[in-house]
């Protein structure tokens, strides 16, 4: 991709096309079929008020919160180990983020079977809403009320989870991972909050915001304007808030990944997939290679995989990643 750099006009056109596809794929907020209150349900706090919950399943807990950070009530699924209610142990936590146009229910639980993947494994998995195109960020502007996803996830939800479940509330007890936009969110949060996570994983997640005339930044702006912010943007338009871009750009914060377990996955194309998947994954691959080159220069180890195909979650690599996460974190 570096040998045939796109024109600025081409970059903007590609960003618009990617965003339109993302918007068409949006599915709505987390919405489990049934709800039931529980007398021992976790309570409010940290700027959150529980307005809906379902705790009847012995493993899967669902909560919907009212928060000033988000203009609607985002949902969160908490997947517990098999023996959580009977064992009395403390567990490490994986914060797992969905991609753009999807929700945590659809991506990780309903469609891909995270419940089966974690059966028998000693880890809590927290799967929050992140908006259709929230980019795990507090946007520069919104025309539809607050959409401060970074504030919700890091300032409110993370300490709420630690306060209401038996977790290790420290770096060695937490991992963060995600697919696509969620992979970017994982890389971003691990860098901006370096004392919070011991392991970070990006499955087809962008790692560079400025390469190729800032294609990923344009993509974030246009997709958020279309799908989430009613014309507002993550990073500002027509001019970016350059300080915000730099603060969020993983490749500009390489030293923040030192002493962390780092797991990266990207596709190399070469299989018949649609235009959206090909263009998206080509940019992901180029950005991850740039990111890895910087890690190499800094002497920071990582595990990276390049596999044929487009912008999809590769289940065998996610399962390998999950085992690595459990091995890295404090033991239950």
TrEMBL record:
<dbReference type="GO" id="GO:0050348">
    <property type="term" value="F:trehalose O-mycolyltransferase activity"/>
</dbReference>
<dbReference type="Pfam" id="PF00756">
    <property type="entry name" value="Esterase"/>
</dbReference>
<comment type="similarity">
    <text>Belongs to the mycobacterial A85 antigen family.</text>
</comment>
<dbReference type="InterPro" id="IPR029058">
    <property type="entry name" value="AB_hydrolase_fold"/>
</dbReference>
<dbReference type="InterPro" id="IPR006311">
    <property type="entry name" value="TAT_signal"/>
</dbReference>
<dbReference type="InterPro" id="IPR050583">
    <property type="entry name" value="Mycobacterial_A85_antigen"/>
</dbReference>
<keyword id="KW-0732">Signal</keyword>
<dbReference type="GO" id="GO:0004144">
    <property type="term" value="F:diacylglycerol O-acyltransferase activity"/>
</dbReference>
<keyword id="KW-0614">Plasmid</keyword>
<feature type="signal peptide">
    <location>
        <begin position="1"/>
        <end position="31"/>
    </location>
</feature>
<keyword id="KW-0012">Acyltransferase</keyword>
<protein>
    <recommendedName>
        <fullName>Acyl-CoA:diacylglycerol acyltransferase</fullName>
        <ecNumber>2.3.1.122</ecNumber>
        <ecNumber>2.3.1.20</ecNumber>
    </recommendedName>
</protein>
<keyword id="KW-0808">Transferase</keyword>
<dbReference type="InterPro" id="IPR000801">
    <property type="entry name" value="Esterase-like"/>
</dbReference>
